[in-house]
Design a protein that fits this description.
526 residues; 6-stranded antiparallel barrel; two-stranded parallel sheet; Topo_IA_cen_sub3; EC 5.6.2.1; topoisomerase
C-alpha cells in the first residue's frame, strides 16, 4: 500500500483539482477519503478543489454525464465503512486469537491453525448449522391420502382430495368407504379465471447471486468477481446495487436497440420494439444505483463460458423486465361424492409475455377436457396413498443469501465473502446442488457458542449494528458512539466467553481426538 500512497502523492503535485472516480458505493466513498489523504490536498477543499464523479456504468455516455454533473464525496458514508471495519476487526481478532490459541495443539485430528470468529461470518455459519440440526432431529411421520381417478375422453385424470392428507390410517379408510369405487362423482362447480404471472422487477445484486448459484451453478464469490469484470469491461452496469427500480428517466429503448443485434434474443427484442415494450414493475429504490443492466453487446467468444452464461442471464432478465406479463387461464373443476370434495386444475397460456425470453419461469400447461356443472361422471378407481414427511434439505447458497439479506447479515458486496469464508475455513462443504453441509468443526463451534452465549451465533446483534451503520451513512448517528457502544457490548460477551470456554472444550473433546491419541509427530527443538 505504501507504493500506492507515494504514487498518488507524486501524481497530485501541482494539481489544481481532484476528481474522484471510485466505485459508487459506501466502500468506494471510503476509498475517496483515503485518496484525498494520500494526495495531501486538505479535506476542507471539498467543493472547491475536490469533487466526486457518480456513475453506474463505464459507457461513454455515463462517463460524460458524470463529468458534467460532479458532486461532493459523502463523508457520512465513508465513516459508516470505517465504523463497520473497526468493529469487525477488533471483535473478530479478539475472539479468533483467543479460541485459536486455546484449541491449538489440543486435538490431533483438528486443523486449528485458525479457528476464526466474525460478527457476520459466524451467524452465516449459524444458519447452516441450524438447518443441519433440523435435519438431524427430524422424525418422519406417515400420512395417507385418498387418490380418486376418473376417465374423460379416453384419458385417466387423478383428482386432488380436498383434505390433502391425514395422519390417521383408520380415519382415511373411513373416508375411502364414503367414496365407493363403483360410484359416481357430481360436478359441483367449475371456475374459469384469467390469471397473471408478473414480469420480474429490475435485477439487484442479491437476486443475481441467488440465480447464479441455483440456476447456473456458480458460487456467490465467483459470480461477484465475474460481474465486476463484466462491469469493468463495459458490458454491464455497476453490479453492486440493492435497487430493483429504474429511474424515471432511464432509456430502455437504447438498451433494447443494443441487444437487438444478438441473434439469441433479437426476435424477442424486435417484437418488443415494434409492438411496444412496457416499463418494468415498480421495484424498490434505495437510492444507490439502478438495477444491473446490460450496457454493451458482448461477443460470446470474448468471454469465458461461465462469464458468458452470467452475462446472458443479465440480458434475458432485462428483456424480461420490459416484456408483458404472462397471461393464462386457470380452470378448476370441483367434484363431490359421499360428502368428500375432489378437484382438478388446468392451465392454458394465452400470452407468454416475459416467459418467451425466460422460459424457465413459464407456466406449466395442462389442458382439461370439457366438463359441465351438474353432470356426473363415474369413478374409475379409488385408492389410498401412503407417504412419509421428509426432512428439509441442507441449506443452499441461494437460501442462505436470502436469510442473510432478511436478517441484515452483510451487504450486497460482503455476502459472497462471508459465504466463501465459511467454506475456506472448512466450516462447511459445498455439496451437489451447491448445498452447504456443515463439517464437524463448523457444527461443534456453533454448538459451543449456543451453550455459552447463543447471541454470538445469532443474527440479532449484527442486524442491530447494521442498522446503526446505516444511520451513520445517513448522517443520523455519530460513528464514534456507535463504535464505542458496539465494542462495549462485545467486550462483555468476550469476557463471559473466556470464562466459560470449558463448555465448548467439552464438545470438542467429544468430537476430536486428544493429541496424545492421534500419534502426530512433533518437531524436535534444538
Amino acid at each position: 500500500m505504501a507504493h500506492i500512497h507515494r504514487h498518488l502523492a507524486q501524481e497530485a503535485r501541482g494539481c489544481t483539482y481532484l476528481v474522484l472516480w471510485l466505485d459508487c458505493d459506501r466502500e468506494g466513498e471510503n476509498i475517496c477519503f483515503e485518496v484525498i489523504n494520500c494526495t495531501g490536498i486538505p479535506e476542507n477543499e471539498v467543493g472547491r478543489r475536490i469533487f466526486r464523479a457518480r456513475f453506474s456504468s463505464v459507457t461513454e455516455k455515463d462517463i460524460s454525464n458524470a463529468m458534467d454533473n460532479l458532486v461532493l464525496p459523502n463523508k457520512d458514508e465513508a465513516l459508516a465503512v470505517d465504523a463497520r471495519q473497526e468493529i469487525d476487526l477488533k471483535v473478530g481478532v479478539a475472539f479468533t486469537r483467543f479460541q485459536t490459541r486455546y484449541f491449538q495443539g489440543k486435538y490431533g485430528n483438528l486443523d486449528s491453525r485458525v479457528i476464526s470468529y466474525g460478527p457476520c461470518q459466524t451467524p452465516t455459519l449459524g444458519f447452516c448449522v441450524q438447518r443441519y440440526q433440523q435435519i438431524n432431529t427430524f422424525k418422519p411421520e406417515k400420512f395417507w391420502s385418498l387418490r380418486t381417478y376418473i376417465i374423460k375422453d379416453g384419458d385417466e385424470i387423478q383428482l386432488e382430495w380436498d383434505r390433502k392428507k391425514l395422519f390417521d390410517f383408520d380415519v382415511t379408510v373411513m373416508f375411502q368407504k364414503m367414496v365407493p369405487s363403483d360410484g359416481a362423482l357430481k360436478i359441483t362447480d367449475i371456475s374459469v379465471k384469467e390469471e397473471c404471472k408478473a414480469r420480474p422487477p429490475g435485477l439487484n445484486t442479491v437476486n443475481l447471486l441467488k440465480v447464479a448459484s441455483s440456476a447456473l451453478g456458480i458460487g456467490p464469490q465467483t459470480a461477484m468477481h465475474m460481474a465486476e469484470r463484466l462491469y469493468i469491461q463495459g458490458y454491464i452496469s455497476y453490479p453492486r446495487t440493492e435497487s430493483t427500480a429504474y429511474p424515471a428517466s432511464f432509456d430502455f429503448r437504447s438498451v433494447l436497440s443494443t441487444l437487438a443485434h444478438n441473434p439469441l434474443w433479437s426476435n424477442n427484442v424486435r417484437t418488443l420494439m415494434d409492438a411496444g415494450f412496457v416499463k418494468p414493475r415498480q421495484g424498490h429504490d434505495v437510492g444507490d444505483h439502478p438495477p444491473i443492466t446490460p450496457m454493451r453487446l458482448a461477443p460470446e467468444e470474448a468471454l469465458e463460458t461461465d462469464a458468458w452464461r452470467l452475462y446472458q442471464y443479465i440480458c434475458q432478465h432485462f428483456i424480461g423486465t420490459v416484456s408483458h406479463d404472462c397471461i393464462y387461464t386457470r380452470t378448476a373443476v370441483e367434484f363431490a361424492s359421499g360428502g368428500e370434495i375432489f378437484r382438478c386444475v388446468g392451465h392454458r397460456v394465452t400470452s407468454k409475455g416475459f416467459t418467451s425470453i425466460m422460459p424457465w419461469l413459464a407456466v406449466g400447461e395442462n389442458n382439461l377436457p370439457t366438463f359441465k356443472k351438474g353432470d356426473t361422471i363415474n369413478i374409475h378407481k379409488v385408492d389410498i396413498y401412503e407417504g412419509s414427511t421428509t426432512a428439509p434439505d441442507y441449506l443452499s447458497e441461494s437460501e442462505l443469501i436470502s436469510l442473510m439479506e432478511k436478517n441484515g447479515i452483510g451487504t450486497d458486496a460482503s455476502i459472497p465473502v462471508h459465504i466463501n469464508n465459511i467454506s475456506e475455513r472448512n466450516y462447511v462443504q459445498v455439496n451437489s446442488g451447491r448445498r452447504l453441509v456443515p463439517t464437524a468443526l463448523g457444527t461443534t463451534l456453533i454448538r459451543g457458542y449456543q451453550c455459552i452465549d447463543a447471541d454470538l451465533c445469532l443474527p440479532d446483534i449484527r442486524s442491530f449494528i447494521e442498522q446503526q451503520i446505516t444511520l451513520i451513512a445517513k448522517g443520523k448517528a455519530d460513528h464514534l458512539q456507535v463504535i464505542q457502544h458496539s465494542l462495549q457490548q462485545f467486550m462483555r460477551k468476550y469476557s463471559y466467553f473466556v470464562k466459560k470456554i470449558e463448555n465448548m472444550d467439552t464438545l470438542f473433546e467429544a468430537q476430536f481426538s486428544p493429541l496424545a491419541d492421534s500419534g502426530r509427530l512433533l518437531s524436535k527443538c534444538g
